[in-house]
Specification:
Order of helices and strands: EHHHHEH
Number of domains: 1
Structural class: mainly alpha
Helix content: 40-55%
Strand content: 5-15%
Shape: globular
Strand order of the largest sheet: 1-2
CATH superfamily: lambda repressor-like DNA-binding domains
Number of strands: 2
Length: 81
C-alpha cells in the first residue's frame, strides 16, 4: 500500500498549509487540500496522477518518489486488528 506524505515533506520545506501548497504548485485548492490531508490513494480510494505528484515535487524541490512511502499491507492488517 502506498501512503502519501506530501504534508510532512511540504512542512519540512516551509509550506504552512494547503493554501500555500496550492499557491506554490498552481494546483486547484481542492486538489492541494486532498494531498495535504492524505485523502488520495490508500484507503481513500482516490487516485493521484503522476503528473500531479511531479508538479508538487518540482515545487518542493524533491523527487516524486519522496512524496510517498510504501507500507506492507500485512503490517497494516496487524496494526488494525
Amino acid at each position: 500500500m502506498v501512503r502519501l506524505i506530501v504534508r510532512e515533506v511540504a512542512e519540512a520545506r516551509g509550506v504552512k498549509d494547503a493554501t500555500d501548497l496550492a499557491r506554490r504548485t498552481g494546483l486547484a485548492y481542492g486538489t492541494a487540500y486532498r494531498l495535504w490531508q492524505g485523502e488520495v490513494g490508500g484507503e481513500g480510494n482516490r487516485s493521484v496522477g503522476i503528473l500531479t505528484l511531479h508538479r508538487v515535487a518540482k515545487a518542493l524541490g524533491v523527487k516524486a518518489g519522496d512524496l510517498y512511502v510504501e507500507e506492507d499491507w500485512r503490517t497494516l492488517q496487524l496494526a488494525t486488528a
